[in-house]
Amino acid sequence: MNKINIAILGVGNCASALLQGIEKYKRETENQIGLMHRDVGGYKVGDINVVAAFDIDRRKVGKPLKEAVFAKPNCTTVFFDDLPDYPVTVHMGHVLDGVSEHLTSYDEDKRFAIADEEPCDVVKVLKESGAHLMINYLPVGSEKAARFYAEACLEANVGFINAMPVFIASDEKWAERFKEKNIPIIGDDVKSQVGATIVHRTLTKLFENRGVVLDHTYQLNFGGNTDFLNMLNHSRLKSKKQSKTQSVQSELAIPLAGDSIHIGPSDYVPFLKDNKICYIRMEGRGFGDIPVKLELKLSVEDSPNCGGVMIDAIRCMKLALDRNIGGVLTSISAYAMKSPPQQYTDTEAKKMVDEFIAGRRER
User: Fold this and answer.
1) Environment class of residue 254 by beta-carbon count within 10 Å: exposed (0-12), middle (13-18) or buried (19+)?
2) Cα 78 to chain center, whole Å?
3) In terms of domains, do 68 and 179 share one?
4) Are residues 152 and 294 in the same domain?
5) Residue 363 lies in a domain
6) In this structure, what are the phi and psi dihedrals at residue 346, rounded to the nearest 5 degrees?
7) Which one, of 80, 3, 9, 84, lies nearest residue 49 by Cα?
8) Alpha helices, DSSP H, located in the chain
9) Full-prediction pTM beyond 0.90?
10) How many domains does the chain have?
11) Is the separation of the CB atoms in 257 and 177 below 8 Å?
12) Shared domain check, 36 and 12
């Protein structure tokens, strides 16, 4: 099989975990722990090849990728540090609305530090690198920046995986533009393998399947990485909150009223670093109108938790490119993203992905 050439937008914790995972599973070929699909249409994890990277932090821009993925403010667990000498230097991206003003009041070790460099020509870099696709790992709230880079992918004829909660794949106008150019897109807002959203979705479906009426529910999240620090600016949270809420609501035949459901990032706790703590509470009524109450605490390392999902998304996109399929990839978007254009149950989405891998054309 050919290599899958990827460009990474945002060399943060998620990028670090992804690259560590690619190298780990490339060398530990029999290790399947954490992989949802060991083989995707003939593509193995080790077939993923990084050819370009973009960031705006002075500790990363102009640095070798191998060095940049471990630079501050990255704080995810290092589980595989033997990375190769990638022939990739991190390019200066376009800041736009990618950095919230409130970050300047925090210690530089915890926040982004904008490099004093001119932005690169993103389209030119994508074309010259030979990238097949780009992964968008921009911070929550980067609405203008996400659309700028989606536009660059359209111009460079490069697939786009939107891992953040800006509605691009799920926006009809953007979806149509990718379809017209026959360029695949996956989005929006990546799910973790076993994270707050998918656990909350599963419990919500359990209540409904077992005849328990869900009256109220909340999901509270705490973490200490730059994502949680960035989200202290609540004006950047509109799309994030909407993405997480509609993902859970989609499991209900009759959605809850707005005052009966609260889902979203809650606070920044620096010493947690990349560890994410989630609290879920569900209040319902079962047989005889008798109350049913459930409380759950989930603790995960946030960035590696979405690595296995992204590895599947990358390989499914390359299959689409091989098969000359453009536009929104429905199955893997429903499987890997919180806010796909079409919501399916997680069981249905997995079946659809397996069928797509086996050769069924996207709808």
Assistant:
1) exposed
2) 19
3) yes
4) no
5) no
6) -65, -30
7) 3
8) 13-27, 65-68, 122-129, 143-156, 172-180, 196-209, 226-230, 238-249, 307-322, 330-336, 346-358
9) yes
10) 2
11) no
12) yes
Q: Would you tell me how many other CB atoms lie within 10 Å of the CB of residue 111?
A: 19
Reduce the secondary structure of 254-282 to three states and give it as a string: CCCCHHHEEEEEEEECHHHCCEEEEEEEE
Instruction: Please write down the long-range contacts of 201-206, taking CB distance under 8 Å and 24 or more positions apart.
Output: 201/247, 201/248, 201/250, 201/251, 201/346, 202/346, 203/280, 203/282, 203/294, 203/296, 204/248, 204/251, 204/252, 204/282, 205/251, 205/345
Q: Is the pLDDT of residue 139 over 90?
A: yes
Token output for 126? 């994508």
Query: Once rounded to an integer, what is the mean pLDDT over residues 157-186?
Result: 98
Q: Are residues 353 and 274 in the same domain?
A: no
For residue 312, give its domain range. Answer: 4-191+305-358
Mean pLDDT of 221-233: 95
In the predicted model, is pLDDT for residue 300 greater than 80? yes
Q: Of 302, 327, 350, which residue is a domain's last?
A: 302
Across the beta sheet with 261-268, what order do the strands follow?
A: 261-268, 213-223, 275-285, 291-301
Query: What does the mean pLDDT of the chain come to?
Result: 96
Banded pLDDT at 167 (limits 50, 70, 90): very high
Q: Are residues 281 and 327 in the same domain?
A: no
User: Confidence class of residue 1 from pLDDT cuts 50, 70 and 90?
Assistant: low
Distance, CA of 280 to CA of 197 (rounded, Å): 10
Q: What CATH number should be reported for the domain holding residue 52?
A: 3.40.50.720
Identify the residue whose tokens are 């069924």: 360
What is d(CA 112, CA 57) in angstroms, rounded to the nearest whole number?
A: 6
Split at pLDDT 50, 70, 90, the class of 265 is confident
User: Is 241 in the same domain as 171?
Assistant: no
Count of residues making up the chain:
363
Q: Are residues 81 and 139 in the same domain?
A: yes
Residue 76 DSSP code? S
Q: pLDDT category, 150, cuts 50, 70, 90?
A: very high
Same domain, 179 and 317: yes
pLDDT tens readout for residues 62-84: 999 999 999 999 999 999 999 99
Which residue shows structure tokens 């670093």? 273
State the residue for tokens 């202290």.
Answer: 232
